[in-house]
Amino acid sequence: MATIRFLGTSGSVVTKERMCAGVLFGDKLIDVGFGVLANLMKSETSLDSINDVYVSHTHSDHVGDFTGLVWAMAMENRTRLLRVVSSVRTASTLRKVLKLQSTPRAWLKFDILFVRPRNAGVEYVRTVHSPETLAYRFKMDGCDFVYGADTSRSEKMAEFAKGCDLLIHDSTFLDGQESIAALTNHSTARDAGRTAKLARSKRLFLTHIAPTNRQVLDRYAVEAAASFDGEIVVARDMLTTSV
Asked: Can you tell me the distance from the alpha carbon of 20 to that of 54, in angstroms, rounded to the nearest whole number?
């Protein structure tokens, strides 16, 4: 059994209640959006315990704290290698970001190794989102979970997540907001429920919540439940669950 902690559950921007995208899973940090580093500190997680950083794509609400994380690790005198798992395009962007933000390489006492998902031994699929975005599937001891990242509803995602124990899915919007969801390549809560149903997932966690919907959070689980009859949780920052 492994623990998952949500470090950021907001879509696009930080709010008083929610930081941007980030999930901590054992020694793996999945996405590093704005505010994730602050919640890592609040959770009293040792940065040296993080071996791998998985990045879904280069939107700032998923990588905004990447340089900050590297600098914080350096300040704590990290010496161990840090692996960053991502697509080739994302890796290229992250290298440029570190350079553009004047990261002093001589100051870092650890190396950063950019690795493709297949070389990290994790399953992945490209989602329906731009720029190039990867969803990841993590397997351990007879159970697994899927981190869906940003995506429009797609049968490809449902096939990728088939039979998973837990599905973390983009649920930015609600019924009546389908046009903006289509424009931005995001999903509604109902879309997430449909994907979970097709995947036959046991549990569904809704995340990437639009700040403009913070007054109607009760609608998220209700609309997802119209399609999916398994357990549904509207994720919140610092929520911890097991898989």
From this structure: 15
